[in-house]
Amino acid sequence: xxxxxxxxxxxxxxxxxxxxxxxxxxxxxxxxxxxxxxxxxxxxxxxxxxxxxxxxxxxxxxxxxxxxx
Length: 69
Known about the structure:
mainly alpha; 2 helices; 2 strands
């Protein structure tokens, strides 16, 4: 789920496409997909509102193996 000023603007639930060998790798794939969506929405918001500088965008991950890396 992607929030903007506390309001959800994008969310997705689906089966993961690529076959992975560990939960850590699955979480990397998921966070990569989410990051692509975040960058698209951030650029869209920047163009729509005609502003710059909404970065950094905090991204949260709950898998301890991903966080440790």
